[in-house]
Amino acid sequence: MRKPTLINAVAVAMAGVAAAFPGMDQTLAEIEKRQGPLSTSLIGDLAELADKDLGATGRAIKNILTGRESGQRERAESVGKDKCCIWKYIADEMHAAMAGSAERCNDFARQAVRMGFHDAGTWSKSTGKKSGADGSILLVRECDERRENKGLLEICAQMRIWFDKHKEFGIGMADLIQFGATVGTVSCPLGPRIRSFIGRKDSKEPSPKGLLPGPSASADTLISMFEDKTISPAGLAALTGAHTTSQQRNMQPDPAGDPQDSTPGVWDTLYCRETTSKDAPKRVLKLQSDMNLANDTHTRGTWRSFSSAFIGQIKWNQAYSREHVRLSLLGVYNINELTECTKALPNFMGSFDSPVKKQLQDFLRGGRDSIATDALLHRDKLPGPSGLVGISRDDMLTNFFPLRMGIIEKAGGSKGQTWASFLVARAHDRDLFMVMFHDSRATPH
Ligand code: HEM
């Protein structure tokens, strides 16, 4: 049974929380002040339409962008036979692929969140009605050809598989990508159920280059880059919090997989604390850009306001959801015609209890040969006596085989036996392989 955490107990509206704890109102108000303002500027067609011309969804999105409605819906609802029906099928399929068996979300989920940013984030005030959340990252091979998308190859291959499978139902690529980001987020324990909208227009026009940030960018560069996308410094700090779940692989490829906090695959605020701490474990790799934001005068207050495990988490989930709705609609000029399909998302996961806690600690202190490493690098599935994982060709050759050979040899097997224990079962496409393996370890220890 799931162990309830504090956040589970209070994953409710802030009003309820404030009522439950004496003095909380004041604490929340102080945190609010420290957090700094999120943007209220309108985007897309909402900036041009009068209130009287807005439909229900357009009005709801306007309210989210201006802070009058929440950007998340904690509670699941049922899905009927409407436009969202197909998205329920897609959400279930994505969720099954994105949730690991070690109570974390896996690399598909993390890459899907990042991919949502890399498609939408190519919009800026100067690109006007072009670019943004339009699917071009996949439709014109930006994913395959642009350096900043190198860490997204597996999710790009998988998104194409999902698109081909469901396109007969009229889904669009831009929607699939942004929906993947919200399913990815809620597939991570503590990740919010971000309000999700369907109906964007796809584009096969390449987006302009140079509108996505680099890992050593200064706070000033990042702040002006995001302000040009209508995102305030507070919004930038909130969105960058997505690195709580991250495990970089390309910024420092050797060794790949080092996380950005001690709980990769979990949507918690430990990342905020560890980014500014001198005592983070050895293998927690902090991005220079994150440290710059954590220490800059414009973003430091927001960063700190999210840092606590309890109220910080609630504030951050709220702020992240609101800013993500904005991000996911950059460059969209038919917002008033969209349909809300939040109800198709999986349930919020308010607790986690990793079955490989001890191994994860060993990994974070520097060891890599562990069951936790194995899980972290390969879809976060814990290997039993035999298993099936889907991995990329590069990952298979550089990480998976050598790592498992080491483990099996340690357990007394020979190299010959080790190779024989792998069977490449099926190649989905040129990048993605399904590998069956067998080894001598029975269950996680
Ligand atoms: C502030 C500017 C940002 C910079 C400089 C930045 C940079 C990076 C870098 C270098 C990585 C590691 C990639 C790798 O080595 O494979 C990464 C990972 C990631 N980023 Fe960002 N990022 C930024 C903002 C964001 C935002 C706004 C989001 C989402 C809303 C996001 C979501 C992610 C996620 C989920 C990962 C993990 C990917 C994985 O584990 O495979 N990032 N980012």
UniProtKB/TrEMBL annotation:
Binding site for Ca(2+) 2: 244, 261, 263, 268
GO MF entries: heme binding; metal ion binding; peroxidase activity
InterPro entries: Ccp1-like, Haem_peroxidase, Haem_peroxidase_sf, Ligninase, Peroxidases_AS
Positions contributing to Ca(2+) 1 binding: 119, 132, 134, 136
EC primary class: oxidoreductase
Domain Plant heme peroxidase family profile: 131-244
Keywords for the protein's UniProt record, in alphabetical order: Calcium, Disulfide bond, Glycoprotein, Heme, Iron, Metal-binding, Oxidoreductase, Peroxidase, Signal
Active site: residue positions: 118
Stretch list, region Disordered: 197-216, 243-264
Cofactor: Ca(2+); heme b
Cofactor detail note: Binds 2 calcium ions per subunit. Binds 1 heme b (iron(II)-protoporphyrin IX) group per subunit.
Disulfide bridge map: 84-341, 105-188
EC number(s) from the headed UniProt entry: 1.11.1.-
GO biological process, one term: response to reactive oxygen species
Pfam families cross-referenced by the UniProt entry: peroxidase (PF00141)
PROSITE patterns attached to this UniProt entry: PEROXIDASE_2, PEROXIDASE_4
Domain of life of the native organism: Eukaryota
Signal peptide residues on this chain, from the entry's feature table: 1-20
Residue positions binding heme b: 243
Recorded family membership: Belongs to the peroxidase family. Ligninase subfamily.
Name this protein carries in UniProt: Peroxidase
